[in-house]
Amino acid sequence: MKHWIEAARLRTLPLSVSGIIVGSIYALSNPTETINTPTEVFSWKVFGFALLTTLGLQVLSNFANDYGDGVKGTDNSDRIGPKRAIQSGVITPQAMKKAIIITSLLTLLSSIILIYFAFGKDNFGYSIFFLLLGIAAIASAIRYTVGNSAYGYRGFGDIFVFIFFGLVSTLGVNFLYAKEVDPLLILPAVSIGLLSVGVLNLNNMRDQESDKKAGKNTIVVQIGAQKAKIYHSTLIVTAMIAVIVFAVLSGYNFDQYLFLLAYIPLTKHLITVYKNQDPKLLDPELKKLALSTFLLSILLTVCMISLISDIIVNLFLGGR
């Protein structure tokens, strides 16, 4: 059990739910024209299964990454980061392959239940669209490192992370509540997506040399360490700016800029990465950036809600 928990990489899980939290609370704090109260727009069932589906997708991605890099020999003695399950031999490739299949089926089941709670027997078109989106997310999580045409080995991993853990996570879950897309929410969705890409980029910066030897052509391998630092800074700074623009366009009051507190660890992180000369020292920054993103999502959702106590009371007394 210990080895499976380690293979699931728990430190990546808070990052994966950041978009779900922001998208859900935005729906709670911004009733639509057809849905006028928080208790009408928000559903605990949708929220719970959205979290479960996203966590399943993240664990699946981690298992598939362990399997793909393990069987290809990318995870070897040259790798700087912590040893992976297949690399160290504590889990066999066959067992990991079974875990990938089981996790895929459970994630698909969770997504189907989520879609049912969101749309019921109505909106058949929406249900089909989100089902296909869920299948695409599962397939993409697996194909990142698994197979001869794994897109993570061609530098496309950043795109997958940005789309599914940023845009789809935030905008998608919000649509499950509101049944419409709010263009303003694109800004925090982009922010979370960019910060999630930053975590992947940091991982690739740490493993640059071993990835290069193994033929894993990540963006970092393609552009080199120095340009990767510039790329990383661009991701983080753009994400920070996007949230500020969102707050301004939303007409936030002064006391609603509490989310700026998350910019303190993000700024410290940027300085550390910029000054770094030893890839080994980048490993702790992975956890710091993931937790900083989670912190930003929590603080931002608090800032979204006015009269939060009244809304919470309504949810517990009349929520579904």
TrEMBL record:
It is a multi-pass membrane protein. CDD domains: PT_UbiA_UBIAD1. It is an enzyme of class 2 (transferase). It is found in: Cell membrane; Membrane. Its main location: membrane. This is 1,4-dihydroxy-2-naphthoate octaprenyltransferase. Belongs to the MenA family. Type 1 subfamily. Keywords: Cell membrane, Membrane, Menaquinone biosynthesis, Transferase, Transmembrane, Transmembrane helix. The chain crosses the membrane at residues 12-29, 41-60, 99-119, 125-146, 158-178, 184-203, 230-251, 294-317. Its EC number is 2.5.1.74. InterPro entries: MenA (IPR004657), UbiA_prenyltransferase (IPR000537), UbiA_sf (IPR044878), UBIAD1 (IPR026046). The gene is menA. It catalyses: an all-trans-polyprenyl diphosphate + 1,4-dihydroxy-2-naphthoate + H(+) = a 2-demethylmenaquinol + CO2 + diphosphate. Conversion of 1,4-dihydroxy-2-naphthoate (DHNA) to demethylmenaquinone (DMK). It comes from the Bacteria. Gene3D superfamilies: UbiA prenyltransferase (1.20.120.1780). It comes from Flavobacterium hungaricum. It holds the Pfam family UbiA. Pathway: Quinol/quinone metabolism; menaquinone biosynthesis; menaquinol from 1,4-dihydroxy-2-naphthoate: step 1/2.
